[in-house]
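User: My instructor asked us to take a sequence, write out its structure as tokens, and then describe one feature of it. I'm not sure where to start. Here is the sequence I was given:
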Amino acid sequence: MLIIITVCTLCSVISLFLVIHTNKNVNDMNKTLTYQYNLIVKIQNILKNKMSVNETTDKAEIIYQDLLQDLIPIMASIDIMPRTTSEHPLWRALGGIMDEYAKNPFVLEKLRRAIKLDANITRNVGHYLNRANMFLQHMSSTDTDGILSTTFTDGLLGQSLTFFAQAQALASTDK
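Assistant: Let's start with the prediction itself. The structure tokens for your sequence are:
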């Protein structure tokens, strides 16, 4: 009888030890799974942000090309060449216009005349102003910290908007 009680007690102690050890393993597994779940959520957020950035980049490229298509005839009409840099063609075109204007303020007068005399230039300037303004408004509404939208507004795009709006206003008041 004593042997049976000893064996039962020993089995109970071993069972208790196994239960405690299994409970510890289950808790460790729970912590690991929680960590992995949190890591998967972070990865998912990063991928969503990358997809969003890629989508925004693709849309921006379409807008850039649209703006560039309006700038090409304008630049031809006022005899301005784009910058010779490795930038995006839109920024080279805008840089060429703004560089030339900084060197020669008469460029504003040439653009005013072109707007006044050529309906295609008037249409291109109007379309450029509308598309660029819409793009800046979209950037302002989607840019959470405002850094990107401020960069565009204070950079070549914003400067060119001011330049073209000024020329358009001068052309419309000088009838």
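For the description part of your assignment, you could build on this observation: The CA atoms of residues 94 and 160 lie 7 Å apart. Try explaining in your own words what that tells you about the chain.
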